[in-house]
């Protein structure tokens, strides 16, 4: 692709920290999503349900849908999406949790050669 063709593509990065206030509600919603997924093979469904019951981050990964985030944005089409979730020891008083431009640059450097985030996180690709 030429430079003018690739300039049409934009990478949007979003970093959220969420507090799980109702673990059972989160888990139940993720289990319903897994059960309703008509394209998920039965073996994968059983594995996913087990993972969701054990880990809130896993449950959240099954409920986040990038398509819903940009579904109503005019003039764009989602070409590729990848997202992940992981448990975090969050402390709002620690400076490390305050994102700024320098933090985003550090995050870019932490990615491996193929542009994917570090291993050890729960994630899904579409």
Can you give keywords for this protein?
6 helices, single chain, mainly alpha, 43% helix, flat, 126 residues
Structure characterization notes:
There is one protein chain. This protein is mainly alpha-helical and 126 residues long. It has helices at 3-6, 23-36, 42-54, 56-63, 66-70, 101-110, and strands at residues 82-85, 122-125. The protein has a two-stranded antiparallel ribbon. The longest helix has 14 residues, at 23-36. Mean pLDDT is 81; it is low at 111-121.
- 3D shape: flat
Find the structural class using helix and strand composition: mainly alpha
Rg value: 17 Å
H/E element string?
HHHHHEHE
Q: Mean of the pLDDT scores?
A: 81
Strand order of the largest sheet: 1-2
Q: Any low-confidence stretches, pLDDT <50, length ≥5?
A: 111-121
* Helix share bin: 40-55%
Strand content: 5-15%
Q: Enumerate how many helices there are, as a single number.
A: 6
Number of strands: 2
First-residue to last-residue Cα separation:
22 Å
Largest sheet: 2 strands, antiparallel
Brief overview:
By secondary structure, this protein is mainly alpha-helical.
């Amino acid at each position: 692709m030429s430079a003018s063709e690739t300039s049409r593509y934009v990478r949007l990065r979003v970093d959220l920290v969420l507090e799980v206030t109702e673990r059972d509600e989160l888990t139940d919603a993720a289990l319903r999503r897994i059960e309703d997924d008509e394209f998920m093979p039965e073996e994968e469904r059983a594995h996913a349900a087990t993972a969701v019951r054990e880990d809130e981050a896993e449950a959240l990964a099954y409920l986040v849908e990038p398509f819903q985030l940009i579904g109503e944005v005019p003039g764009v089409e989602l070409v590729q999406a990848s997202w992940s979730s992981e448990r975090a020891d969050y402390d709002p008083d620690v400076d490390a949790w305050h994102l700024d431009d320098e933090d985003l640059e550090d995050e870019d450097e932490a990615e491996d050669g193929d542009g994917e985030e570090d291993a050890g996180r729960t994630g899904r690709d579409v």
